[in-house]
Amino acid sequence: MKVFLLTTSPGGFLFNSMGHTALSFSGGKLDEPMVFNWGAYDGTRPDLLPAFLSGRMEFWLAGEVWKVQWRRTVKQDRTMVAQELALPPGEAESLLARLEEGYKPQNRAYVYHWAKDNCATQARDAVDRATGGAVRAALAGEVPQTARFEGSRHLAPWPVVAWAWRFMAGPYVDHPLTEWDLGMVPERLMHSLDKVRYTRGGVEIPLVTRSCVLREGGHSWAPAAPGSPWPWSAGGGLLAALTAGLGLGGRGRAARVGAGLLIALHALWASFLGLATFVLWSISQLDGVGPTENWLFAGPQTLLLVWAGLRLVRGRALGPRALQAVRALGALGLLAIPARLNPLWALDNLDMIAAFLPPLLAAVAVLHRRGAAP
Question: Does one domain contain both 8 and 82?
């Protein structure tokens, strides 16, 4: 019996942006090749998005004949690679038996976790068990990539989504990873298995005996690196300069209205991201979203600046307490700089500080200058 690891490229949509992994079996007792994958779920459920975001989404192991898998790959125009695995004698049959038992209705479900329990990690664990732990042992070394890096490069086709995800992701996604951990990404697992060698019958052999590109699709692999976040950060600097120029240097109604609108719109975006992060963190069991020091300069409290900016647009003064609260927002935002230096807080967010803190400080300066007498 032959066993293949099948790796499929991302499919052009957010829900399949990480790619896919499956195991294929042929020969032996099988009349036709079978494919098993851990990526099945109920796409018709009305609470699909809340269930996924809450970390309570059930996926399951599915078994299907090869031609069904192939038709789906062709329909989605995705790239597929097959790697033939050299498992110990009898392990291919044993693995098939475990999967046949595992995809029965009473056994198939599991709670999805993007890093610890997905289609790639399930396949990785199954192959590791079949090789007596050889895969985990071979992939124990640390890698330079982080979960933030991987998530950012797979979300690169959707720059706004990638930016929002980078904002919402907390220190969990910046933790060091081993190559075993990185196997959560189908493409990374595919390349890692190519390097695995283990001892069988006293002889060291490669786990992957041959690889073949079964199909070159219109949708290929994610870019090698994420898109640069610095254009967004540069936009923050530009926004700060415009806000300060209008609010501190400009005169007349047009300058006041322009400064107020810039303050209100930026604060609305910042508070939306902060509120969304807070809500997800409070309701979700998935690791990776908040708490984050980005809340210091772009959190729910930033809504105050929406109100203050609109009052500036309307030419209405802020009271002493409101001005005091605005100044406190600026001081709170500045705390992100020493927090960034804390070695216990391994958050890769320098780009976020550059994007959000200058406009915040510019808004505080303008409101301090104009707040009492627009």
Answer: yes
